[in-house]
Amino acid sequence: MANIKSSKKDIVKSEIARQRNVACRTAVKTARRKVLDAIAAKDFAAAKTLLQAAESLIARAGKKGVLKKQTASRKVSRLTKTLSEAVGAGK
After folding, report:
1. pLDDT tens track for 1-31
2. In a domain? residue 5
3. 82: closest CA among 44, 56, 26?
4. pTM tops 0.85, yes or no
5. To 10 degrees, the CA torsion angle through 67, 68, 72, 77?
6. Is 41 helix (H, G, I), strand (E, B) or coil?
7. Which domain holds residue 15?
8. Residue 2 counted as domain residue
9. Neighbouring residues of 66: CB distance < 8 A, sequence distance ≥ 6
10. Is residue 72 in a domain?
11. Could you tell me if residue 44 is inside a domain?
12. Please, which pLDDT band fits residue 88 given cuts at 50, 70 and 90?
């Protein structure tokens, strides 16, 4: 444990940021899972609305630096592609 007051404060701030980042990453994973579950259940209308919400969460995480921008873009792209392929196969 640090002895210097500013170092102690830095440790506290780092822990708060870490917990915020973990919560954000968890929310992204949950949103992604919900979209994939809706696709698996062939509920494409729900999947589209869930995809919009997931896309917003992922973009926000990328913008805030929780995810790298390219990683966020890749996640959105893959989800969109999966939904498009499922809708195409479902017709």
Report:
1. 889 999 999 999 999 999 999 999 999 999 9
2. no
3. 44
4. yes
5. -150
6. coil
7. 10-90
8. no
9. 21, 24, 25, 28
10. yes
11. yes
12. confident
Q: How far apart are CA 59 and CA 55, in angstroms?
A: 6
Q: What's 54's domain CATH number?
A: 1.20.58.110
| Proportion of the chain in helix, strand, coil states, percent, rounded to 5 | 85, 0, 15
Q: State the Cα–Cα distance between residues 12 and 7, nearest whole angstrom.
A: 9
Q: Do residues 53 and 31 touch, judged by C-beta distance below 8 A?
A: yes
Per-residue pLDDT, 49: 97
SS3 state of residue 42: coil
**Pick from 55, 65, 63: which is nearest to 28 by CA?**
55
Tell me: the pLDDT tens digits for 28-75? 999 999 999 999 999 999 999 999 999 999 999 999 999 999 999 999
